[in-house]
Write a structure and sequence with these properties.
single chain; Rossmann fold; seven-stranded parallel beta sheet; 12 helices; 35% helix; 21% strand
Amino acid sequence: MNVLFRTDASVVLGSGHVMRCLTLAHALRKIGAQCDFACRLTSGHLADVIRDQGFTLLPLPENLPDQAIDACKTLEVITHDYSLLVVDHYLLAADYCQRMRLRCSHIMQIDDLANREYDCDLLLDQNLVANAEHRYSRLLPPHCMQMLGPRYALLREEFYQVVTPRNTQHILIGFGGSDEQNLTSLAIEAVNNLKLPGITADIVIGANNPWHVEIKKLTANLPNMRLHVQCNYMAKLMHQAQLMLGGGGASHWERCICALPGLVVTVAENQQATTTFLDQLGACVWLGQAADMTAEFFAEQLCYYLSQPALLDRMGQTAAGLIPAAAGTPLVVDTIMNTLNNTNG
């Protein structure tokens, strides 16, 4: 089975789209699929990460002004037909997919906006929002199989394997692959100014973080903080922490399966609906939007919640209840294969 992923990463877009596609690609490769990636070489692309993980990268021009041109350029770089096209991109939808059906038998779209028409056979939206089951009802073809909610969250294999004892007074800081607003530096300052004894922290940044030099300098002389760049052991770090301070997006579901309570800042508009809904459920605390954050505010919130271990335990258990241990990536792969087999049947 040949699978093509069409997705992008950049300093502006972040790395989340590519990283969750890589998670799915690894799972599909385990059952024999050959997976290729078609990506624009924008500033902050993850071409080397894709290649280093053993996948073929088909480079696309940086400037693709509309869906028709994007499809044309994608069709130019592929050399064979594909059983499945996976599209994880907010700027691509029905027009692109209709053109790609020339070379792709089935199409899966990964999305969470529900703001345009789609032409796909499978749709994955792993977010948890009110009225989730009806958001796409008028936007999809009738035959489309919908995978909705965190039970379909694309989580790497490590999240199903690692169980590590938690360290009290230990914080995990992670604001995504690029952290364009540099919330990481504010969080480091906040932890450094905490008046609580024995506080330690792991800080995770992506390879695309534009502030990595500053962050390395900040942490170099802080023995209670460890910096991790583009790490592949996030599950271990999440299991060790008592509390996470970070962004929304896919990290919500990584936290949930690790039963890790979180203080969450929304760094993009599309993160707000899910984050506020999880806050209402008691699965995290929404601190607000990135533009409103300060080091002093972070320190106040960390100090309060670290002094409430029973509250953190309840938050972690509520979060863990949102993702069944047997679901996630394996369920997505099973659904894909069942759909392809039934269609080909």
